[in-house]
């Protein structure tokens, strides 16, 4: 049911909208609800990690990316895993550029 307030897509849309409006408190609230109630909704981890980075909380971002990679691997979602790994590498300072 599309109007179900616990529907992961609705929660994700709300979190994303609050994030775009720079209402970080509500964005965090909805992202955390997704992580707790819908851990296999892997798109959450990337955006929550980015929000942590935007707030200067790199350690929390790294932890969320790691959890997201674990969930993506469990789900067999190679694309999400790859995106999360790239974000993790960047946040953890593991980006290697060829000069």
Automatic annotation (TrEMBL):
Coiled coil: none annotated. The keyword Phosphoprotein does not apply. Signal peptide: none annotated. It comes from the Bacteria. TPR repeats lie at residues 8-41, 42-75. The keyword Lipid biosynthesis does not apply. SUPFAM superfamilies: TPR-like (SSF48452). Keywords: TPR repeat. InterPro entries: TPR-like_helical_dom_sf (IPR011990), TPR_rpt (IPR019734). This is Tetratricopeptide (TPR) repeat protein. It comes from Pedobacter cryoconitis.
């Amino acid at each position: 049911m599309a109007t179900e307030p616990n529907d992961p897509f609705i929660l994700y849309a709300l979190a994303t909208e609050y994030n775009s409006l720079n209402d970080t408190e509500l964005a965090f609230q909805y992202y955390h609800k997704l992580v707790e109630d819908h851990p296999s909704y892997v798109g959450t981890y990337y955006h929550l990690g980015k929000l942590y980075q935007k707030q200067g909380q790199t350690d929390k971002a790294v932890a969320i990316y790691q959890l997201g990679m674990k969930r993506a691997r469990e789900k067999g979602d190679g694309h999400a895993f790859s995106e999360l790994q790239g974000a993790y590498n960047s946040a953890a300072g593991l980006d290697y550029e060829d000069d």
